[in-house]
Structure formats: C-alpha cells, structure tokens
Amino acid sequence: MSDPKPKVVLVGVDFGLPNFDAELSELGLLAQSAGYEVADRITCKRKAPDAALFIGSGKALEIKALAAAMGADEILFDQALSPAQQRNLERELECPVNDRILLVLEIFSQRARSFEGKLQVELARLQYLTTRLVRRWSHLERQRGGVGHRGGPGERQIELDRRMLNDSIKRTRERLGKVKRQRQTQRKQRERSGTFKVSIVGYTNAGKSSLFNALVKAQTYAADQLFATLDTTTRQMYLAAAEATISISDTVGFIRDLPHGLVAAFSATLQESVEANLLLHVVDAANPASFEQIEEVRRVLHDIGAGDIEQILVFNKLDLIAHARTPERMQDVLTHEGHDITRLFVSAHTGEGLDALRALLAERYQSFMNPVDAYTPANDDPRFAPIS
What are phi and psi of 112, to 5 degrees? Predict the structure, then answer.
C-alpha cells in the first residue's frame, strides 16, 4: 500500500492584475504534478502585499483554521514569497509554507533525467536555498569566536551553511559550464553542415513532446502533466516534399511567473530555441487561457533573445476541442504587432493536420536554402537606373 499523499491548501491573492487565476487551477495542477493532494483552495483580494505576512492577519487566521479543519500538511501560495514573509507565515499558521517557485523547483528535480538537466535544477535549487537559510536556523543565537579566529567554532551555523552552499554553487556552475561547451561544439557542427534547425516551444502541457514524437517517430517521454519534459531532445527529420533532412528539438515548457533563476539555470537548454531558424510554437487549443499562455511564452522568448525568430503557431489537441468551437479553417494567418504569423490546427494524438505541418516545414526549409534576393529599385525602376 502506497503512502498517502501530503495534503495542501492553495492560496492565491488577487492584486487586480490581469489574468488572475481565480480557481487556482494551474497551481492545483502543479501541486498534483509534485505529488500533493489538494485539500482546499482559498483566494482573497488586496491592493498590495503585506510586508510581513503577504496577506492580512485576519486572512491568515482564516487560512490557519481551514488548514486545521482539512488536516493539511502544508500551505502553498500561488505567488512568490520573500524569505521574511515565508518565515512569518509559518510562525502565524503553525504549518509549513511554500510558494510557487519552490513547487516548480520540486517538480523540476523530480523530472530531470539527463546529467545536464539535473545540474541545471540543482543550480537553481541551491540559488533559491541561499535566500532561505535564516528560516532554517533562526532559532540559533549568534555565537562569537575568539579574537582573530574568523570562521572558528563560534561562527553561526547559518554562515557555515552559506559557505557550503556557495561552494556547491561554484562546483555546479563549473560542471554545467563543461556541459554547455559540449553543447556549443555540437551546435557548431550542425551550423557547419548548414542544417535547418527547428525548435518546438510552448507553454507546459501544450503537447510539445507528443507533437515531436508524432513528427519524428521518436519515443521521448510525453504525459498529460506539467513539465513532463525538462531535457532538450534533438532528432533528424526527413521532409519528403523538400527531399531534405532538418534538425528538430523538443524543449522545456514555459509557465506563468517562471522564476528568473530557473530561466537562467536552463539557459543551455533554452539556447536551442535562441539558435533555431524556425520556432514551432505549440498551443493547447482546448485550453480557455490559450491566448494568455501564448503571450507568456512570447515574453520568455523575448527575455532569452529569441523573440525575433520566425514562428508557426501550432494549435494542438484539435481532437479535444468541443464540436461547437471547431475552427472553420485549419490554417490561417494571425497578425501580431504588425507581423503575420501562420496558424495551423493539428492533433498530435490523431495525426490530423500533421501532413499540412510537414508541408509548411518544407516550404520554410526551401525559403531558408533559397532566399529571395533583396529588392533593389535600380533593377526595376528607370528613375534609379545608372546615368550613362
């Protein structure tokens, strides 16, 4: 018999910002992905976070009573908490308190499979822990060592821990640097071969790995859960219409409020997107928040320097769209900030629309290999003809 899952109460605070998840549905999915059972959810409205508790003292008492009534083992906040807020809340609620960032880190640590992925998660986790040391050792009073004995037996435990963490961060960065250099060597080899590079990007659980598997007949891990894929997988894909082989990569999914430390830690993985010739931006067509998710992915792509790379919007999970919402056209063009972006509806599960996607990839490959010469007025307009 398996051990019971720890119970959590989810807390969200509406500060009047757009796209507030009133149902805490995404936080619930994250909690379930990390192995928690959601006991209950509670939300409140505030104009600004309380400096000490993030929420008001009255709401804190309400959450404390709810957690006790539900037998919750932990409280999870949908927003990032400062170390002081987290520490104060734990004192007030008499229960472990964590936030969205730690939850994402926990999922990442469970899912990372490759050596590189594990190193990236470890680096992000260590960097997060350096800000939380006070929480762990706040019960210890400062002890003084002898004169001139810096770091002697009187040094506080928190300082020892910080040194150990900083040493671990340094070692992890060095090991990750070696892996990054290996990746760069592989990319340079692909560049020298003139390979057309495609990266699959998108919000987590949009079906990126399922699409990748369907296109290249691979067997990478794909599941209906958040962050099923953390490690970049690259395969060769043959396009019959172009009689050519391209390189296609499946990458880690993005999410709202993705911690900056995680984006930085996964820079090696995300580099595949930065250096791609084309991005397949996969969207969960059945998700009511799909357009908000598109904007979040665009924001992260801009942050990592991939915002100007050509995209094809691939609206996946066509088989899950209600019949009344089935699109009239399987392929059209959307305009975003003055740029036309091709949109295509597909189902990686049933295969519908995949032939059209392969045809689009073949077109983009041929355009890449045979770029149209830039327009020069002198060739076409007698006003710009050279003077004889």
Answer: -60, 130
Distance CA 180, CA 267 (A): 9
Residues 344 and 285 in one domain: yes
162 and 256, same domain (yes or no)? no
Dist CA 178 CA 264 (whole Å): 16
pLDDT tens per residue, range 155-177: 466 677 778 888 888 998 888 88
CA distance linking residue 300 with residue 294, whole number of Å: 10
* Alpha helices in the chain, H assignment, sequence order: 25-33, 57-70, 83-93, 100-111, 115-129, 133-137, 157-192, 208-216, 260-265, 267-274, 290-303, 354-369, 377-380
CA-based max dimension of the chain: 93
- Cα–Cα dist 256/345, whole Å: 23
Mean pLDDT of 233-251: 90
Check whether residue 311 and residue 344 sit in a common domain: yes
Q: How far apart are CA 142 and CA 150, in angstroms?
A: 14
The tally of domains found in the chain comes to: 3
Q: Which two tokens stand for residue 122?
A: 């470890």
Which residue segment(s) compose the domain that 52 sits in? 7-106
**Lookup result for tokens 């295969």:** 351
Section 347-357 average pLDDT: 96
* pLDDT tens digit sequence for 54-94: 999 999 999 999 999 999 999 999 999 998 999 999 999 99
Indicate whether 42 and 90 sit together in one domain: yes
pTM: 0.74
pLDDT number for residue 64: 97
Are 129 and 268 members of one domain? no
